[in-house]
Amino acid sequence: MNTEVSERPAATRHRGVFHPLTVAAVDRLTDDAVAIAFDVPDDLAEEFRFVQGQHLTIRCELDGRELRRNYSICSPAPDGPLRIAVKRLEDGSFSAFANERLRPGDVLDVMHPLGGFHIPLTPDQARAHVAVAAGSGITPVLSLITTTLAAEPSSTFTLVYGNRTARDVMFLEELQDVKDRYPQRFQLINVLSREVGESPVSSGRIDADKLDLLFTHLIAPDEVDHFYLCGPSGLVRLVRDDLRARGVRGDHVHYELFHAEDEEPPPRRRHTEAGGAAAATSHVRFTLDGRTTTVDVDPDTETVLGAALRVRDDAPYACRGGVCGTCRAKLCEGEVDMARNYALEPDELAAGYVLTCQSRPLTENVVVDYDA
Ligand code: FES
C-alpha cells in the first residue's frame, strides 16, 4: 500500500531532477576518450554551479533502454565551462555512444552536480596536496589541481598519474599548461605500466613496490596535508591502506571510485544494533522534493531506493553500487543495513545519512528524507 501523507516546500535543488542540456563541444582527448562540454542556460546557472571534484549524472535512452551514468566534472576552474570526460569502456554502451556518435547540438539529460570529493580552500594556507590517479581518475583531479593552486597561492600540488602508455594520458596539454603556469608548485609524476620510463618510479604499475619507492624517495607522506585518490577501486584501496600503514590519518585521505567491483553485497543483517530480530516487512516513509510517500518493503528482496522507485520514478540514483552518492538520504527513524558505502564521508555517516541504493530496512518502520 502506498500513501501520500504530506507536502512541504521543496528544497532549492530538486533531487533527482534532470535538465536537458545542449552539448556545446565534443573534443577528443585520446583514442578512446572525449571531453563533453555543455551549454548551461542562465536560468540554470545556479543549479549547475559546482565545486571542484564534483560529478554529474547523465541520463539518456539508448536502444530503448534508459541509462544513467556518473562522470566527474573536469572543468579547469569552477567558473569554467561545465565539462565531463568519457573514456570508452569495454561493453560500455554510453561511453561508446559518447565516443562515436555524440555531436555538438545534441541534448542530454543532466542532473545538478553532486559529491564531496574536495576540501575547503583558503588563500592563507600553505599546504602540500598530493593526488594519486589512474586513467580517467584524472577527471576530478584536474579540477582539484587547478582550483587548489589558484585558490591557495602558497600551496603545492603533486600528481602521481598512472596510465598504460603515453597515448593513454588524458589532458596532457592541460597538465602541461599547469606545469608551465606553476613551475614551482606543481609536480607531475607519470607512471606508465607498458612503457619503460626514465626511472624505476615512472615505469610499471602502481603497486605496493611502486608506492614504497614513491613514498620513500619522492613524497614524504608525513609532510603531506591532503591526499586525493581516484581510480579503480583496487588502486584506491591499495594506496589508502598503504598510507594508513604509514601512519597517515584517515581524514587526510580523500578518495573517489569509478565504480564498485562486482562483489556480491553481504547478506542482510538478521538483527538490529540492539539485538532485536530484523523485521520481515517494513514500512518505509520517504520525503523527496517536499512530498512524503509510504511504501511497504520486503527487505530480503528490495532496498529503500528500489521500493521508492516503485512509487516515485524521480527517486534519485545513478550507479546503484554505493559509489556515486546520488541516492543519499537522511535516516530520520528506524534502522537499515547498508551493504556498501564508497561515497559517504565519516561526518555524513555520523549525521545519519545513508545510501538508499545499498540500504535494506531492519526495523518495521523506517523514515528517510532525501531533501535533508
Ligand atoms: S545510486 Fe550511486 S551510491 Fe546509490
From TrEMBL:
One of its GO terms (biological process) is phenylacetate catabolic process. Keywords: 2Fe-2S, FAD, Flavoprotein, Iron, Iron-sulfur, Metal-binding, Oxidoreductase. InterPro entries: 2Fe-2S_ferredoxin-like_sf, 2Fe-2S_ferredoxin-type, 2Fe2S_fd_BS, Beta-grasp_dom_sf, Cbr1-like_FAD-bd_dom, FAD-bd_FR_type, Flavoprot_Pyr_Nucl_cyt_Rdtase, FNR_nucleotide-bd. PROSITE patterns: 2FE2S_FER_1, 2FE2S_FER_2, FAD_FR. Residues 16-120 form the FAD-binding FR-type domain. CDD domains: fer2 (cd00207), PA_degradation_oxidoreductase_like (cd06214). Pfam families: FAD_binding_6, Fer2, NAD_binding_1. It comes from Nocardiopsis gilva YIM 90087. Residues 282-372 form the 2Fe-2S ferredoxin-type domain. GO terms for molecular function: 2 iron, 2 sulfur cluster binding; flavin adenine dinucleotide binding; metal ion binding; oxidoreductase activity. Residues 261-280 are annotated as: Disordered. Its cofactor is FAD. This is Phenylacetic acid degradation protein. It comes from the Bacteria. The keyword Metal-binding applies.
